[in-house]
Amino acid sequence: MDVVLLIGRILFAFQFVSAGYGFHLRQREMATGYAKSMGAPAPEITVVLTGIQIIVAGLMIVLGIWVDLAALLVIAFLIPTNYWMHSFWKMDDPEQKLQNRTHFWKNTALIGGALFLFFLYQQYGEEIGLNIGPAALFD
Q1: Residue among 112, 105, 111, 113 at smallest CA distance from 89
Q2: Sign of the torsion formed by the C-alpha atoms of 8, 9, 11 and 12
Q3: What is the pLDDT of residues 47-66, one digit of tens each?
Q4: Percent of the chain with pLDDT over 90
Q5: H or E stretch including 73?
C-alpha cells in the first residue's frame, strides 16, 4: 500500500510543482500582471516567493521529507490564493465568475487533501514507507 500512497503524493504534488515552475517562475510577468489585476498584495515579490514555496512543498511531498510541514506550506499558499486570485463573489462577468468559482472549489478540495496528508504524517509518519528523509517534522 505504500506504493499507492506514493502515487497519490506524486499526483497531488504535481499540481504545485508544475504551477510553481511553469506559471509563477517561467511566466512570472503574466502571473504578476494577473495578481495585480486581482488586487493581490505585492505581486512582484509574492508571485516568485509563492512559486518557490509550492515547488519546495511539492518536492517535499513526493520525496517524503517532512510531509506534514509541506502540507502546511500548501495550505498556507492555497488559502490566500483562494481569497485574492479566485474571489468569484466579486465578479460580474458570468464566464469569469464560473471559471473562478471552479478554481476556488478545486483549491478548497486541495486544502482538504493537504489536511489528509498532514494528519497521516502526524499519526503515522515514520511508519509510512517510501520516504527519503524524516517523514514528519512535528512529532
Answers
A1: 105
A2: positive
A3: 999 999 999 999 999 999 99
A4: 91
A5: helix 67-85
